[in-house]
Amino acid sequence: MSTFEFLFQGILVAMQPMNLLYALVGVTLGTAVGVLPGIGPALTVALLLPVTYKLDPAGSLIMFAGIYYGGMYGGSTTSILLNTPGESASIVTALEGNKMARAGRGGPALATAAIGSFVAGLIATLGLAFIAPYIVKLALVFGPREYFALMVLAFVTVSSAFGDSALRGLTSLFIGFALAMVGIDQQTGQARLSFGIPDLLDGVEVTTLAVAMFAIGETLYIAAQGNRGEEKVEAVKGSLWMTAQDWGRSWKAWLRGTLIGFPIGAMPAGGAEIGTFLSYATEKRLAKNPEEFGHGAIEGVAGPEAANNASAAGTLVPLLTLGLPTTATAAIMLAGFQQYGLQPGPLLFANNPQIVWGLIASLLIANAMLLVLNLPLIGLWVRLLTIPKPWLYAGILLFATLGTIGANPSVFELGMLLGFGVLGYIMRLFGYPIAPAVVGLILGPLAEQQLRRALAISQGDVTTLVMSPIAAGLLIVAAAAFIIPLILRLRGRGEVLSQLAANED
After folding, report:
1. Does Acetylation show up as a keyword for this record (predicted)?
2. Taking every pair of C-alpha atoms in the chain, what is the biggest distance, in angstroms?
3. What is the pTM of this model?
4. Residue 71 and residue 258: Cα distance in Å, rounded?
5. b/e sequence 411-448, b meaning 16+ C-beta within 10 Å
6. Is the CB of residue 479 less than 8 Å from the CB of residue 166?
7. How far is CA 466 from the centre of its chain?
């Protein structure tokens, strides 16, 4: 079957009434949490993991993807009106968007962000649909050593792409590896690191770790910071609609942002924030009036917001085809797949085409829903910013606890939830990223299994791991993945920091 036929079948799946409802719930929740500062899509998906484990897999994954897209949309509202990015990828939007809001042009800033996100999401989702089958064909020839090299690439990716320090990323990853070793060894049947506790023989639940570190840890971290004073929300003055001049200055930036964001999101060492930094730098270099940057240039909102949403679709390319998560939300979605016994990768396209193509097609529908929801309901999203933080985070703690009890009613599991929550708080306090620990727990056993198979086939010859051209190529890419994020971040952030310094002057 051709890509068009698969995509058409996926649209039929996505258009089922229950799946449409899941998509609507996802994009609404995603937008709401994107608007709320400090709560991102990763935290929301983590909270919903234990609640949705008995639901239909296709519907739940469609809802998670809707939350991801919605979170990208909602983050722009907080950046523009509050000058507080809800996600790291929305930092650049705050530079120009908040200046526009202060000048009474918050409406056009929100409009160009919403329409640019729609355009980028539409193009990037189609790119995902047409690129994914080619990557799957390549991955179907993988053996144990190729899969092990792919796992190494995933580990390097999450260590270098998350946070500012590769060493801290590796430390977080090895915490995940240690937790992955808890339980019964699948090949020998021996108990490992269970310390005689029967509850640990089944290993550490991914959902418990994800909820604890993302939800409990974030709540404790915010509570420890105390009250930092009132945050001023800029009122949306005048019309929400863009003028002809705004359209003329925005449409090229939308397309350029899409072309920058999608491939960077699809790269194993990608990430949405890198694309937004580069898009901002590109728009500033190409602008006819570069002196407007720092004072409310609409291109500085249009380009980065398009890059932001294009990166979100790009992130799903390595996740669905190879099982590689390149963002925190993608790592939690990977846990969501495994919750239903599904492993993202080439076999997912072969064994569960309805689920994967329904998920891809649902992104097109979610994108249209978001455009309809965002601008007419801007007043509602702004009101969410007035929710007192003690109420908000108390609700998160309650929801996380009830969700864990519902999935696994055990006092020991609640103790683990609290323990991992404190660990997540300590890691945040000292600047250690959370996502690598979750990825280490998910992919660690798979990497161990493939390594053992490869060494068993070669009768213990370690050199077999580099004798395959594909495996050697993946290991070379893994080595490069340490360097590429540093170069891209330094290049993109250098432009942004110079702009911030110029603004202060």
Report:
1. no
2. 73
3. 0.74
4. 18
5. eebeebbeebbebbbebbeeebbbbbbbbbbbbbbbbb
6. no
7. 31
